[in-house]
Amino acid sequence: MKICRFDDNRLGLVEGDEVRDVTAAQEVLPSHCYPLPTFDPLMANLPRVIEEIHRIGPSAQILPLAGRRLLAPVANPGKVVAAPVNYRKHLEEARGDVSIHFDNQIREIQQIGLFLKASSSVVGASHGVEVQHPEGRNDHEAELVLVIGKPGRNIPRERAWDHIAAYTGGLDMTVRGPQERSMRKSIDSYTVVGPWMVTTDELRNPDELDFWLTVNGQPRQRANTRDLVLDIPTLIATASSYYTLHPGDLLFTGTPEGVGPVREGDVIEVEFGDIGRMFVDVRNAQRSYA
């Protein structure tokens, strides 16, 4: 099942070039009072929501997918976990380009582990990327993203798949510089997720998934998840050995070689096989005090 969030926080079931408005399925979600939960309520109750989508879907309003404003498929991720240099060729690329490493030692992922991105940086494909520091090099990084559905801590590799509810595409945008990754990658709109999420029963080959990225039609990145240094179960096990994973948490699995800069006016196109394609506009952020 392909589930999207669109327009004014509507919930949709994507079918080809159409979307069924199944927003009413959210009525099965429990209400929460302050203090609010540290997880995403929809992802925590996804099986119930899917059951309701099956019930109301046949009679739901059908809309053209074209022209819809696609929001991040997860509204309230508690945290965003990311895997640096998790493709061997990208590790070599980063080590060999001073405009990427800025004299920082680029060590292997087995040594440096994972890092966190601010959840406030998460946007959907239609929002686009707002370049905050145009004087610097702002790079695209295409990545498969895991959406956590079942909570867990110290999850063994053999149970890792049980904790994934869905998959989606991601752009882990970054401004190059000597600062820590979490700072350079947590700028508003620098975590683009979409175009929608695909539930695990529909996407059966996440560990052998082709994906590619172009900028203004020019090829930049192309890879397959079979080339991950730390595979999906290992990423889940590693992340959960440091912090509890909650429903709605996002785990970016790493980007391949071919990262490169984007500028105002560019259009990033990224496609993940069996998930979907998203178009992301790049513009400069408005410099205003608020």
Task: Write up what this structure looks like.
This protein is an alpha+beta fold and 290 residues long. The chain has two domains: 2-69, no CATH class; 80-284, Fumarylacetoacetase-like, C-terminal domain (Fumarylacetoacetate hydrolase, domain 2, Alpha-Beta Complex), CATH 3.90.850.10. 16% of the residues lie in helices and 33% in strands. The protein is built from seven helices and 20 strands. The strands form three sheets. Strands 1, 2, 3, 4, 5, 6, 7, 8, 11, 12, 14 and 17 form a twelve-stranded mixed β-sheet that branches. It has a five-stranded mixed β-sheet with strand order 9-20-19-15-16, with no helix packed on it. A three-stranded antiparallel β-sheet has the order 13-10-18, with no helix packed on it. A hairpin with a 2-residue loop joins strand 15 (210-215) and strand 16 (218-224). The termini are far apart.
Please provide a brief summary of the model.
With 290 residues, this protein is of the alpha+beta class.
Detail the topology: elements first, then pairings.
Blueprint: E1 2-6, E2 10-15, E3 18-21, H1 41-44, H2 46-56, E4 61-64, E5 70-71, E6 80-82, H3 88-96, H4 98-101, H5 109-112, E7 115-117, E8 122-124, E9 129-131, E10 138-140, E11 142-148, E12 164-172, E13 174-175, H6 181-184, E14 191-199, E15 210-215, E16 218-224, H7 232-240, E17 250-252, E18 260-261, E19 267-272, E20 276-284
Parallel strand pairs: 6-17, 8-14, 9-20
Antiparallel strand pairs: 1-2, 1-5, 1-14, 2-3, 3-4, 6-7, 10-13, 10-18, 11-12, 11-17, 12-14, 15-16, 15-19, 19-20
